[in-house]
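[SOLVED] Need 3D model of a two-part complex

Original post:
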Amino acid sequence: MKPIIFHAEAGGQFRPVQLEFATEAEVKRLRAWRKMTPATDAGEFAALAAKRWFYYAREGASVASLNELRAAIRRNERAELAFLMVASAEWAKRYKFLALAHCRRTWCHHLALDFLAVRPGVMFKNQPISGLGTGVLFCVAGLAESLGMETIWGEATASSAPFYEKVLQIRPVKDVFIIRREAMRGIREYYLEDQKRRLAKISKRSHIL
Amino acid sequence: MKRKLTPREWLDDLLEYERTHPIAFASPGALREARLIAELEKARRSLRRARRNGAPHRRQAAVG
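Solution:
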């Protein structure tokens, strides 16, 4: 499967980031986030998301590619399956991974978002990289749509609710957020429309230069 | 009533949010389970280590 591409703002420009299913070796590498100092929630979540992935793997319920996911669903349409999506970028090679999302395909073919984390302190040209969390979330939503899933859901907390409120343009988000297919399609179109506009601006500028 | 943001305003707002807030979110249920898995693994590892070091196997308590 080709990686899913989205764009994040880095060094004053929109730059491509690729999102892929993590392989077993990549899941192992993710655990290194925990060693970062100072300790962060993202570091802990990355290590715990990896633990969950391996726990599911022991039961044969972790997948490392879209093909594996489709095949596992074909074998058992009520299977609960876990997968980890990791974001990386050619222009930010010093970071193996920029962000992650741990997802579960539930028994009734919905997508549950368990962990969403951006590597703390990611910088490019001494400026923070922005738009990674949003980009990962929209790509995961696109993946769910391509798999014909009707619903994406997750549990929100005091710290994540404001983010989901902004992304989903719904207020208030409380314990649980549920995104139906139609709503997600609308928001994705909104997102892609603006990404296209920003990219066109960049290519116009580089054309002039 | 709050007006709906244009795509541009909305994405600018999101980018600003990401610049100023760490994105590290976990569903409390998933977090609880993952911590439990980690604890179980730790216990299993220390049991294995103890066995390797010659500690006798724990016997099941007799019932009755």
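Edit: Strands of chain A lie at 4-10, 13-21, 81-88, 99-105, 111-118, 123-124, 127-128, 151-155, 176-180.
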